[in-house]
């Protein structure tokens, strides 16, 4: 199965994201808290929590950190109410951007996101202005390493319900529908397959290819958005120049 790697496109700046591991743990911790608060602290009875735990493990989040976030969500600690909200807009060169936030103050978050777009040469738009360009998909990323047979992994993924399988550089990328994400992930975990990323993302249907000048501008906008404590994810349809961020 073929196609340009969705994960590599979204994660073109992975090296920079790895440097912000502490911030990543904070954001995933908030997702764990919300998932536990909404559906309880037992992952076997709360599929959203189970998926978020898998996401946390994929980035090597310590288990005690995961458990502390879950306990806060079930009432052992802070009693903060977070609301999930998406913002949509355009960056430099017409790049479509979706900002996913968990916030306890919508006015603060909306103001910060709008200001970040404007100071970075972009513009915040109305709800729905760019989301039609994306599809919600589960993305499972497996590192290529000894002991993993590509054909065998592909067959296991497809048999479990995956929609697509792609080999790209040093990773295998498995795409699922949101509904089948948990079952495919669990089936591969049962085969002792580990992930370097496991999450549901907004995947663009078409990409905007950037030159170096606009790539730098878009990168600055995404960096500023990701530095906001309320922002959980930034999805975009930018395709950075070959080797960008390495």
Number of helices: 9
* Share in β-strands: 15-25%
Run of helices and strands: HHHHHEEHEEHEEHEEHEE
- What's the pLDDT, averaged over the residues? 88
What is the rounded distance between the termini? 26 Å
Commentary on this structure:
- This protein is an alpha+beta fold.
- The protein is built from nine helices and ten strands.
- Strand 5 and strand 6 form a beta hairpin.
- The chain has three domains: 14-73, Arc Repressor Mutant, subunit A (Orthogonal Bundle), CATH 1.10.10.200; 83-132 and 205-239, Alpha-Beta Plaits (2-Layer Sandwich), CATH 3.30.70; 135-204, 2-Layer Sandwich (Alpha-Beta Plaits), CATH 3.30.70.980.
- The longest helix has 19 residues, at 21-39.
- The protein has helices at residues 6-10, 14-18, 21-39, 47-58, 63-73, 106-119, 150-160, 181-190, 212-226; strands at residues 83-90, 96-103, 123-124, 134-143, 164-168, 171-176, 197-204, 208-209, 231-236, 238-239.
- The strands form three sheets. A four-stranded antiparallel β-sheet has the order 3-1-2-9. Strands 5-6-4-7 form a four-stranded antiparallel β-sheet. Strands 8-10 form a two-stranded parallel sheet.
- The protein is 41% helix and 23% strand.
SSE map:
Blueprint: H1 6-10, H2 14-18, H3 21-39, H4 47-58, H5 63-73, E1 83-90, E2 96-103, H6 106-119, E3 123-124, E4 134-143, H7 150-160, E5 164-168, E6 171-176, H8 181-190, E7 197-204, E8 208-209, H9 212-226, E9 231-236, E10 238-239
Parallel strand pairs: 8-10
Antiparallel strand pairs: 1-2, 1-3, 2-9, 4-6, 4-7, 5-6
